[in-house]
Amino acid sequence: MTTTALLIVDTQVDFTEGGRLAVEGGKAAAAGITDLLTRAGERYAAVAATKDWHTPDTQDHFPATTDDPPDLDAGIWPVHCMAGTPGAQFDPALVLPGRTAVFLKGQTEASYSGFDGTLAADTPWDDEAGVGLRKWLATRNIDAVHIVGIAFDVCVASTATDAADAGLDTTIIRPLTAAVSPELSEAAEARLREAGVHIAEAVPTG
Fold first, then answer.
1. Longest dimension (CA), the chain
2. R_g of the chain, CA atoms, integer Å
3. pLDDT digits (tens, 9 = 90+) for 113-160
């Protein structure tokens, strides 16, 4: 029998409309994830959510000075999701179960995959604080994941690729994501399918 977890990627204020690095459709994705959890959350053996959680120590991810422009091709993005700021919090439309595990990533270097994150302190799993997502899922005998969040063509895709590489049966629920651009999405889809990731075009009903 398959044991499935829901992974919610970077559904944060800075990535939804009005944020510093807004992705169109981000708020709709957040609301849709909440609806899924309300209607069918019991289907998941575990729920985990990731946060970009950058600090002044984050290297090679932001412009070197305020006068330097971003360079997305080089992975240099506008400043976003600084630890502890309002923009780093989950979007208000995302309502998470009380026992959601939160994994923080990007404190010291650019980080796109949720599998780079470590379990935050002050959670129901204080004794596991600092453990990585892969180990946390393995401890709970998870063998499949559904992945949602922002952005489909960046951090969602990276998380899904790493999940598949970890041997998990991996599905992205496409309607519960938001993407940076059609061009990036097309390239991401090709990489995902090559990695064996399933892309569901409909939201599970129960």
1. 55
2. 16
3. 999 999 998 766 667 878 999 999 999 999 999 999 999 999 999 999
Single out the residue of 62, 78, 59 nearest to residue 15, CA to CA.
78
Q: Which residue has the tokens 């289907």?
A: 43
Q: Is 81 considered catalytic here?
A: no
**Given 27, 116, 155, 162, the catalytic residue:** 155
27 has catalytic annotation? no
Question: Is 7's pLDDT higher than 80?
Answer: yes
Q: Which of 51, 105, 116, 153 is catalytic?
A: 105
What was the pLDDT predicted at 126?
Answer: 67
Question: In the chain, helix, strand, coil percent, each to 5?
Answer: 35, 25, 45
Which stretches of the chain are assigned E, i.e. beta strand?
4-9, 46-52, 101-105, 118-119, 144-150, 169-178, 198-200
> Given strand 101-105, what is the order of strands in its sheet?
118-119, 101-105, 46-52, 4-9, 144-150, 169-178, 198-200
Q: Is the peptide bond before 151 cis (omega within 30 degrees of 0)?
A: yes
Structure confidence by residue, pLDDT tens digits, 62-82: 545 565 555 456 565 667 788
Q: What is the pLDDT of residues 76-99, one digit of tens each?
A: 566 778 889 999 999 999 999 988
10 is catalytic: yes
What letter does residue 193 receive in the DSSP assignment? H
Q: Do the Cβ atoms of 149 and 96 come closer than 8 Å?
A: no
